[in-house]
Amino acid sequence: MVADCLAQGKVIGVMRGAAEFGPRALGHRSILADPTRTDIKDRINARIKGREPYRPLAPVVPESEVGDWFERPQSSPYMSITLPWRSSARERAPAVVHADVTGRLQTISQEGLPWMNALLEGLRQRTSVPVALNTSLNVMGKPIAHSVENALAILCTTGFDGVLCEEYLIEKP
């Protein structure tokens, strides 16, 4: 369902389970999109986040495949490292390749975040790229959303296409 939305070019907010601790969007309070779309980074920065166009967005990659996408591959479940993209992979996910050709990646596994793993598999089936764009569920000057009301307010006042609250996907008409 969410993979279909992303593959159609929609931007979906996610509010599932307990919030992450700290400033990272690790799949519980996230904005997700298809990183194969060259315009999606500018759309998120301008119409949703309200921030400068040079600000990077992060890739989520299956842990077992990080070496296919990044040089010096290693696990990064908390977006705590930045790695250089393999030259062969950069053009496949342009929205999450920073200007210095790096990415602050999050790696996920079936055991660690099963629903996100399933989402990446869904993206692979629809776009041939098992990578998602991920950034924190907030807008400029505001904290990360911590309630359904916060998430719905962001949906109603920005360029979001939908919000996934637990198992319920709420989309704009």
List the helices and strands and how they pair.
Blueprint: H1 2-7, E1 12-15, E2 29-33, H2 40-49, E3 58-62, H3 66-69, E4 83-84, H4 87-90, E5 102-103, E6 106-108, H5 114-127, E7 132-136, H6 148-157, E8 162-165, E9 168-171
* pLDDT averaged residue by residue: 94
Helical percentage = 25-40%
Number of helices: 6
Kindly identify the CATH topology. DHBP synthase
By CATH, the architecture is named Alpha-Beta Complex
Could you name the CATH homologous superfamily?
Answer: Carbamoyltransferase, C-terminal domain
Distance, first to last CA: 16 Å
Please give the radius of gyration in angstroms.
15 Å
* Tally of discrete structural domains: 1
Number of strands: 9
Strand order of the largest sheet: 6-3-7-2-1-8-9
Main sheet summary: 7 strands, mixed
Specify the structural class: alpha+beta
User: Poorly predicted ranges (pLDDT <50, ≥5 residues)?
Assistant: none
The CATH class is Alpha Beta
The helix/strand series, from N terminus to C terminus, equals HEEHEHEHEEHEHEE
What does this 3D model show about the protein?
- The strands form two sheets. Strands 6-3-7-2-1-8-9 form a seven-stranded mixed beta sheet. A two-stranded antiparallel sheet has the order 4-5.
- The longest helix is centred in the C-terminal third of the chain and has 14 residues, at 114-127.
- The two termini are 16 Å apart.
- It is an alpha+beta fold.
- It has a single domain (2-171), classed as Alpha-Beta Complex (DHBP synthase).
- 28% of the residues lie in helices and 20% in strands.
